[in-house]
Amino acid sequence: MNYDVAIIGAGPGGIFSAYEIIGKRPDLKVAVFEAGHELSKRRCPINGKDIKSCIKCKTCSIMSGFGGAGAFSDGKYNITNDFGGTLYEYIGKEKALELMRYVDDINLAHGGQGIKLFSTAGTNFKKICIQHDLHLLDASVRHLGTDVNYIVLENLYKELKEKVDFYFDTPVKSIKVCEKGYEIECKNANFKCTKCIVSVGRSGSKWMEQVCNELDIPVKSNRVDIGVRVELPYEVFSNITDELYESKIVYCTKKYGDKVRTFCMNPKGAVVNENTNGIITVNGHSYEEASKQTNNTNFALLVTKTFSEPFKDSNGYGEAIARLSNMLGGGVIVQRFGDLVRGRRSTQKRMDDAFITPTLQATPGDLSLVLPKRILDGIIEMIYALDKVAPGTANDDTLLYGVEVKFYNMHVEVDGKLQTRYPGLYVIGDGSGVTHSLSQASASGVFVAQEIVNSYNND
Ligand SMILES: Cc1cc2nc3c(=O)[nH]c(=O)nc-3n(C[C@H](O)[C@H](O)[C@H](O)COP(=O)(O)OP(=O)(O)OC[C@H]3O[C@@H](n4cnc5c(N)ncnc54)[C@H](O)[C@@H]3O)c2cc1C
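That is the input. Now the predicted structure with flavin-adenine dinucleotide docked in place:
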């Protein structure tokens, strides 16, 4: 089969590439290859009854399939250049924001209409933060919620499947450069295409490295973020989350001068497992619909680590720490803040006596046996700092789940068109190391689609 454009990966990057190409040039033949299942068949087997924790499926339904890692995510589309990636370094700040807004409009037109856009502009909370040496980053956020996010994906799929050839359960094995484009090698067949967009996200990180190796595309080590997911009663953060929904707050520790930041805030949300290449870490999400909401709010506290010489493998470092927590806890470990600062492990009894009901079943344990001292000290210092703007954060019963690791793909060398050194071979989204958010991954998809459409229009 020959295609004008082959897209590898049906996450937000791949979906928005396909959507834009087909919308602007319906005459082009487009295929999407996806390692995971189609949306309706994506189901994580954890049901809280007979299957309580991750059984390491061959393809993780949380991370793979139509919708990518974003399908069951919280659906928080942050419109900002301050976090979520560095797309602006390639395409410019104005263009990046313009495309994030464009993606937002498409989401609204596909089921997200009526969802409020929260903004930090003009908030008094910024002043309160600065008075306590905390720094609130600027952003606008559209929180679709896991439920509405799913509806938007369903609607996009309905529209796309009529015009695009989707190959699900089809992991691409390799990409070969040929005379008039590229050959996409899959298990049972090979396909040819003139242009190829690679959008394989975090779950495709190892494969992406292999492809770069084979095609001699330069890559650079990226950072890794390591920390915990904090869970506390909704009321503790309600003053902030009711106004802003999500707040990205950065704190510089007194002890080491390290930066600790809040990440992915989920009011009335749930803490969940995440499986990255067989390693179980923790994440969180929340629903827009009131009946699915919980009494707790969760968010991550993360510390960034970058390595240069002689050790470069930031992800390897994060993986080793996550593996240690998996070894001690059989998965994710949970500890009460009060137990952590008293230097004792949390036990099931102490958890049962607590005034908070955890939303994730995790093993009560001791995070100080897992997290490096410097990272843990930073997290504890940040919790006391947050306690000043959200009293109750440093309560004994505040739960810390570990570990949360944000793995970033190696930075793939791409130019200002997100194109590799091979003309017509683009690498976008989280798989490129350039983005790490729904809005920037999606915007990068629209960007290359427009580049491709322009190149055909100019032919
Ligand atoms: C639980 C959770 C909650 C999150 N919440 C948010 C949030 O609220 N807001 C936010 O901005 N971000 C959030 N994120 C991150 C967000 O989901 C990602 O940044 C985003 O999905 C990246 O999009 P992408 O298209 O680059 O990659 P992905 O979404 O990872 O999609 C890549 C796709 O490529 C496929 N693939 C990989 N290798 C191959 C191969 N060899 N052949 C074929 N297919 C392949 C994968 O199966 C996957 O479906 C969350 C992530 C998780 C896991």
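Residues 93-112 form the longest helix (20 residues).
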